[in-house]
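Propose amino acids for all 379 sites.
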């Protein structure tokens, strides 16, 4: 059903784009159909990068997938740009009489004006697509957050790596850069709140050997996201155990006398796959009242199920901060949250934009991040 919806969108969007980009011009029907086919191909590119059941990897496969997604995102941005441009252009030309009276050459139906408007939009789209690709393949920046609590007796530092989405198209060089930059921060604790593995682990041995180098004196902790459910919890759990990471699956650990870290799987996926609900009281049953309690919950809206004073901080991912504008709007509508620190919630909630991304290795208007949280005592 999802594939059928995408196909219908591709057909409709290709038709609309063809109408504005080439149909008004006095060129042959064959040329117009060729243009429509190229645009449809760009919209259909994600269907051509499915790796399921195929042992594809390496430089040329990555180059192929990056190119396909670049074409798809370019088509998407062109479509959004056309809608916004034509809406503003046509409405302005209709509502401002001086424009139509004194500047008829600026009419949205003037072929010469339309030609230059299309050329300008095309240049803008490919510029933004190139920027999105660069943002997707570069090593994330570090976002710093400092929190204070009277429960913290000595300063603790936590590095957060969420939504790595390890798959065979993820650059090993980028992953090595993420690990090196994280270790260089010298955090006391490293947490990975879900969507870490997103491919058959037999195809990720080089990736996992790099990830294994994450080091923190108080431990590396991981919880499950929705994509761990999709590829199979048994497979991802086995990989985490071999990495030496501590899995927090509806359980918690005292990492110091003043700090307790708990983790739950993505609650929506957990309910869907097990027909059960998460009982947070049981997850926190070993926490001491005087300890600062951190909950790793991949899905941010789980904060709405938290009772006052149950936890002191929830760390989440999942949203990618929208990843590619204007998906920010849909992500916010679907989750009620986007990224950053939220304090007007049952407990403080921090949503990282993630160190990787899903689907296109591209980001626009939402840079990837390694989050470095410092917990300080109140003296």
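Proposal:
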């Amino acid at each position: 059903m999802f594939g059928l919806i995408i196909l219908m969108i591709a057909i409709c969007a290709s038709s609309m784009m063809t109408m504005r980009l080439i149909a008004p011009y006095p060129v042959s029907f064959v040329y117009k159909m060729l243009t429509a086919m190229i645009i449809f191909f760009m919209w259909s590119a994600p269907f051509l990068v499915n790796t399921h059941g195929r042992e594809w990897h390496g430089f040329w496969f990555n180059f192929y997938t990056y190119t396909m997604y670049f074409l798809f995102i370019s088509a998407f941005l062109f479509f959004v740009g056309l809608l916004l441009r034509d809406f503003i252009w046509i409405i302005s030309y209709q509502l401002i009489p001086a424009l139509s009276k004194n500047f008829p050459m600026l009419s949205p139906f003037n072929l010469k004006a339309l030609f230059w408007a299309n050329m300008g939009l095309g240049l803008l789209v490919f510029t933004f697509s190139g920027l999105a690709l660069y943002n997707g393949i570069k090593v994330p920046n570090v976002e710093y957050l400092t929190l204070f609590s009277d429960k913290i007796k000595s300063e603790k530092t936590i590095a957060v790596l969420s939504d790595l989405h390890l798959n065979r198209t993820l650059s090993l060089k980028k992953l090595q850069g993420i690990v090196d930059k994280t270790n260089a921060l010298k955090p006391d604790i490293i947490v990975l709140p879900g969507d870490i593995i997103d491919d058959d682990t037999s195809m990720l041995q080089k990736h996992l050997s790099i990830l294994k180098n994450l080091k923190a004196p108080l431990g590396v902790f991981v919880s499950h996201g929705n994509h761990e459910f999709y590829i199979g919890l048994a497979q991802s759990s086995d990989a985490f155990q071999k990495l030496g990471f501590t899995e927090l699956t509806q359980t918690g650990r005292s990492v110091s006398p003043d700090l307790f870290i708990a983790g739950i799987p993505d609650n929506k996926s957990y309910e869907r796959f097990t027909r059960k609900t998460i009982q947070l009281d049981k997850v926190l049953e070993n926490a001491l009242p005087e300890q600062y309690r951190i909950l790793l919950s991949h899905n941010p809206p789980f904060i709405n199920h938290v009772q006052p004073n149950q936890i002191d901080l929830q760390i989440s991912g999942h949203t990618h901060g929208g990843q590619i504008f204007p998906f920010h709007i849909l992500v916010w509508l679907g989750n009620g949250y986007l990224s950053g620190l939220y304090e007007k919630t049952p407990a403080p909630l921090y949503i990282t934009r993630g160190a990787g991304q899903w689907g296109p290795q591209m980001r626009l208007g939402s840079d990837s991040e390694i989050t470095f949280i410092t917990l300080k005592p109140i003296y």
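Residues 2-136 form one domain. The longest strand covers residues 141-149.
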